[in-house]
Each structure stands twice: as structure tokens, then as C-alpha cells.
Amino acid sequence: MKINWGTAIVIAFVCFISFIMYFVISMSTNQKYDHDLVVEDYYGQELKFQNDINKEQHAKSLTTDVTWKKTKEGILISFPKNLNYNNIEGKVFLYRPSNKQLDFETPISLSNHNLLIPDNRLLDGRWNIKIDWKYNTKTYLFKENINY
């Protein structure tokens, strides 16, 4: 049986459309490819964005900013040494882009200028760290993408 070029083009289009439909349906129904927003309250977070920008500007005005380093025990977060650590309060939020069940938030409670996030709470890979803290009456924000 001989197939002319018009029939071959129609068969190619039908095969291509079938593949695309299979791909779209399997990606939208499979739970493995979940399409959640980054945060549940996305629009509420967007309204607070200018406040975050102001906090980051305050942090840039410090002589030394918050720093972090990876240790055997976990992530060691160091606050500026020229500030009294008893007046520092706030929270540390670690966000895992690949799995929202691993996200967690911890309050800042310091006995010196360092805060340790234990290793058992962290998996290897990419994390977004957000430290929202307050010293006396001024608020600061530190954000960074880290690889643990």
C-alpha cells in the first residue's frame, strides 16, 4: 500500500497532537508534578514587600551584617558583634524550594552572638534562609540562597 504525502502529513499531525495531549494530561494529573505557589498566602506576602525592602536597607546600614557558615553541627548564624545580643529578637525561616514539608521556622534566642540550626533538621541541597530580626526598635532582614 502506498501512502501519498498528504496522508503522511495528516498522520504526522495526529501523532504529534496525541503526544502533546498525553504529555499535558499526565503532567496535570500526576501528583509528582505538583504546581503549588511558593507560599500559601502569596498575595498577602506581596503586599508586605515594601516593608521587606525597608528592612533590607536597614541591614545594609549596619557595619557588619548577619553571616552564616556550615559546620558539623549545622548552620551557625552570627549576628553583629557590636550589638547587644540580649536585645536581638526575631525568627529564622528556612524554605526548601523542592519540598514544602521541610520548611520550618525557629525563633531567635541567643546566649551569645551565634545561633545554631541543628544538622538533623536540614537535608543536603538548596535552602532559602530568611532572618527577620529586630534590635531595639529597628527591624532588619537578611535573605540568602544557600547550599547545605
How would you characterize the overall build of this protein?
With 148 residues, the chain is an alpha+beta fold. The protein folds into two domains: 1-35; 42-147, Immunoglobulin-like. The chain has helices at residues 5-29, 42-47, 49-60; strands at 67-70, 74-78, 88-95, 104-107, 114-118, 126-135, 138-147. Strand 3 and strand 4 (104-107) form a beta hairpin. It is elongated, with a radius of gyration of 24 Å. It starts with a helix and ends with a strand. The model has no long low-confidence stretch (mean pLDDT 85).
Overall pLDDT confidence: 85
CATH topology of the largest domain: Immunoglobulin-like
Q: Give a quick account of the main beta sheet: strands, pairing sense, barrel closure.
A: 4 strands, antiparallel
Number of domains: 2
* Shape annotation: elongated
Low-confidence stretches: none
Q: Report the C-alpha radius of gyration, rounded.
A: 24 Å
**Strand order in space, largest sheet:** 4-3-6-7
Can you give the helix content as a percent range? 25-40%
Q: Structural class of the secondary structure composition?
A: alpha+beta
Q: Which CATH architecture of the largest domain is right? A: Sandwich
Please work out how many helical segments DSSP would assign: 3
How far is the first residue's CA from the last residue's CA? 62 Å
Using the coordinates above, name the CATH class of the largest domain.
Mainly Beta
State the total count of DSSP E strands.
7
The helix-strand sequence is HHHEEEEEEE
